[in-house]
């Protein structure tokens, strides 16, 4: 396969891709994200596409570039990463005792063949009722600050999740089934690649 580039600084995305056994390089994008007023599904695809395009010029010419963007959607409101502890509190208060959607957009660019695919995945997450004490104690751990919706299902935030409907990896920021399907559309079979590399 051509060189695989992950256009992300997210430790979760790096971990998920590593766990698949794929060989890849990380080139984070410097694209400045902003949550413009848009439909969430379209927004995450656009943001993922902008991240991937930002990395094209920094990547070798024979690269496959993967980028993603994750948001939390509650009653038509879109939550990205909180900018302060107070904003994290507001987000978690909103998510308490109800369900919300986590939407991740993925964009994959095949540099050499000038091909691009973009798509999204959605997961519904059901939160327990949270007391103010729980929310502030959680914020004190520092976990919410770099995560969409101010929680991480893979760590302490998992304590608040009663159940999910959909892909778990999508909530963490990189839905692997979707990635497998989209890479397939570009003629790349992740499983075959990993076996070929002797993993
Ligand atoms: C909801 C949720 C989000 N997240 C994370 C995944 C993403 O890293 C982050 C959403 O922010 P993103 O803007 O999607 O990604 P990022 O800024 O962390 O990284 P990059 O743009 O370089 O790819 O929230 C979790 O880790 N667990 C969760 O349960």
UniProtKB/TrEMBL annotation:
Site annotation Important for substrate specificity: residues: 12, 70, 154
Pfam families for the chain: Maf
Reaction(s) this enzyme catalyzes, per UniProt: UTP + H2O = UMP + diphosphate + H(+); dTTP + H2O = dTMP + diphosphate + H(+)
GO BP, one annotated term: nucleotide metabolic process
Catalytic activity, EC: 3.6.1.9
Entry keyword Hydrolase: yes
CDD domains, per database record: Maf (cd00555)
GO MF terms, alphabetically ordered: dTTP diphosphatase activity; UTP diphosphatase activity
Organism domain of life: Bacteria
Record-annotated active site: 69
Compartment(s): Cytoplasm
Cofactor(s) the record lists: a divalent metal cation
Cellular component GO terms held in the UniProt record: cytoplasm
Main location as per UniProt: cytoplasm
Keywords on record: Cytoplasm, Hydrolase, Nucleotide metabolism
Family of this protein: Belongs to the Maf family. YhdE subfamily.
NCBIfam families registered for this protein in UniProt: maf
Function summary: Nucleoside triphosphate pyrophosphatase that hydrolyzes dTTP and UTP. May have a dual role in cell division arrest and in preventing the incorporation of modified nucleotides into cellular nucleic acids.
Designated name of the protein: dTTP/UTP pyrophosphatase
Species whose genome carries this gene: Fonticella tunisiensis
């Amino acid at each position: 396969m051509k060189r695989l580039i992950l256009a992300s600084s997210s430790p979760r995305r790096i971990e998920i891709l590593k766990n698949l056994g794929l060989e890849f390089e990380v080139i984070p994008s410097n694209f400045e994200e902003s949550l413009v007023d848009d439909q969430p599904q379209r927004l995450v695809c656009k943001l993922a596409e902008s991240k991937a395009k930002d990395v094209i010029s920094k990547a070798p010419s024979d690269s496959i570039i993967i980028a993603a963007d994750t948001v939390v959607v509650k009653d038509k409101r879109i939550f990205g990463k909180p900018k302060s502890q107070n904003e994290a509190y507001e987000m978690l208060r909103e998510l308490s005792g109800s369900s919300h959607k986590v939407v991740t957009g993925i964009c994959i660019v095949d540099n050499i063949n000038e091909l691009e695919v973009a798509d999204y995945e959605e997961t519904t997450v059901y939160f327990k009722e949270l007391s103010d004490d729980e929310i502030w104690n959680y914020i004190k751990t520092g976990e919410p600050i770099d995560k969409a919706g101010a929680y991480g299902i893979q760590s302490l935030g998992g304590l608040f999740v009663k159940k999910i409907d959909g892909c778990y990896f999508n909530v963490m920021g990189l839905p692997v089934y979707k990635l497998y399907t989209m890479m397939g559309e570009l003629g790349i079979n992740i499983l075959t690649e990993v076996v070929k590399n002797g993993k």
